[in-house]
Amino acid sequence: MPTITLCRFGVDKQLSLHEVTLESSSYIAISHIWAQASWTKIPGIAEKVLVSPQKARFIQDRLPALVGHLLFWMDVLVVDQSNKDARLAVVEHIPAVYMNATKTIVVREDGGFGPCCESLLDLIDDEKWNVNRVRGANGQLEDYDIASNAAKHLKSHHQHGLDEIWSHRLWPLQETNLSQTIQFTVCENAKRAKSSVTWEKAYLELTELDKAAEAWVERGQFIWPVGEEENPDEQEQTMVLKKEFMRAMLNNGTVTRSSEPVPEGKASVFHTLVGSLTSSRETTKARDFVLALFPSYSWYTIPPNVRDMEFGELWVDCVTQFQTFHEQPFLNLSVKPKLTLGILGHTEISAEESQKPSADIPYPRCLGDFARLAYFLGNREPYLDASRRGTWRIQKMTELDDLNDILAIVSETVYRTRIFIFNEWISQYSVWATQQKSSDEQLLFKLRLKRMARAVAGRGDKASDESDDTIRRLEYELAVLGDKGAAKCFTAIIGMYVRLNRELDERTQVPRVAKASWDQIVELAKEHDTPFWRTSLLHLAAIVSCGLGFSSLSWSRDRLSPYLASYHEDGQRNALIQTLMIASPNLTIHRSDEINLFTNPHDPYVVKKSTEENGAPRVIGAAIEWHHEDRDDFKIVLYNGCPLALPCNDPGSTPDEWICLFTHGDYNEAIRSLMGSPGVSRAANLPFLIL
């Protein structure tokens, strides 16, 4: 066990420092949010402390009573925050500090959830909280089964805003996960700024609370061994303990998990990262996504030169370490880098090296985007049977392609992509549109003015280069995500499938076609159609469907291009599958190359085999996050991008009959036939629902 510095308040509230061995010491750990910190003199403490004004008052007035005369750890009091080496050196000890503490006091900021919010806990498990807000073709957010009681509560109890800052930051989540006993308290702020109360914001706050509770519970014993079925009793205990955690937080109470931490043999990075996919927690430095999460695993070692490493270099080192650890105990929980050297277009390397992680990656803006830098390939079957006789073809997509073809390909890509990929996109896009857009526009305006001033003065330096990079990023994101951007159409396509699937959940054997929604989408596309709009729609759809995060949008613009991957079976005229994929703009495919994707559940990449490399598979692209689950009640087919849901269990027809009616001849003629025109299969006499 390491020797580390702790502190203690004396009888006169004078703070003293003590060098101790954690294993043999009894102490309390403090977890808190830094907020807007500045160097401050606090009575009883010899040196100035880097804290916010409200945190300084908390340390002076409330902390002594909370810790008494016990030893305790608080980073701003025991680590010299002016010394970068000291701050980095302590990172490797953080897991031991919180795991060995008798309890952790979590200091939340004022303005978040309170005891009045306990009624919301019963709604978290309700299916109404698990649906998405989708932006329809008219650009308006549409609510689906939003819990009205929750909306009323927010308006009546949080008139001055709701801002649970604790749920925004990364380090407090990890410190909480490592702690067996947690006591919550609040650092009050008399000058708290008023914040907005929106459904999107409240929804994110609630889901972050739910995810934090689940992560804390699962860090204990409630992780089922690989290959074993989930234990219903343990599932119930998990739910009970989750509610205890949330109630303790809302009421400034205490909660304890009696279990020991997960044994190292079960401690897979798979669980940690999958549980983080939808998290919006942020950190000041991108490297902290690695340094906050992984030092708690015994297999991870912080590189000795971490101070000099860029985020991408730290990511490559981390991937190398967890892949080495996962080779034996977690063969069926595969974690692979989403962006490899081969995908980024490195052609001078061997086929084997093309699978290695790239250091050139986007800086994630939140924990979810960091987790989406990896593929997670658990117990899944391949999408395509390797014995099928067919071939894959790849072609680059451009703005010169027909608009209807582009929309149809984007629609099929969304259909074939796992729906949870879009859940977070909808959430992030909604928050951006309602909260971030205006501030981005203001920042862009200010940066443009500064650039003009520099040009007049003839100045240029590293800071101006970084400012120009920010301007380019904001210009592109506002063009793609703004009112006239492609994001509105892309989100409307997602919304079409959300609505269709909601209708199918009613389990009534009535065919449905999303014709009304599709017609709106087509009109929206025609209204904003430009060459840039087309390329940005293809780029956005490919990036999101391949599972990359919101923060990769601008970064990928010059590095990755959308391609069409189409699967053709022998003897069939039309492609059986068409989806977007991403690869280097300089990708070269020869006629003799063999292309493969979706045939191996543990190989998520687009690969090619060439005679030049003796058939060794070379990674050349990233495929969409596919889904393979077939419904047992409906079969969905597409006609020029418009989805049709066909009942599988009608005794008078088969899906093949419906497909034949729908896909041969004129579209409108097929619709009329399906709605009951004479002379067709008796299946056409069924009522038909147009969405």
Task: Output the keywords.
single chain; 691 residues; alpha+beta; six-stranded antiparallel sheet; five-stranded mixed sheet; 38% helix; 16% strand
Walkthrough of the structure:
The structure is a single chain. The chain is of the alpha+beta class and 691 residues long. Among the domains are: 242 residues, no CATH class; 41 residues, no CATH class. Helix content is 38%, strand content 16%. The chain has 22 helices and 23 strands. The strands form seven sheets. A six-stranded antiparallel β-sheet has the order 14-16-17-20-19-18. The chain has a five-stranded mixed β-sheet with strand order 6-3-7-10-11. It has a four-stranded mixed β-sheet with strand order 21-22-15-23, with helices on both faces. Strand 4 and strand 5 form a beta hairpin. It is globular. It starts with a strand and ends with a strand. The relative contact order is 0.09. InterPro entries: HET. This is Heterokaryon incompatibility domain-containing protein. Pfam families: HET (PF06985).
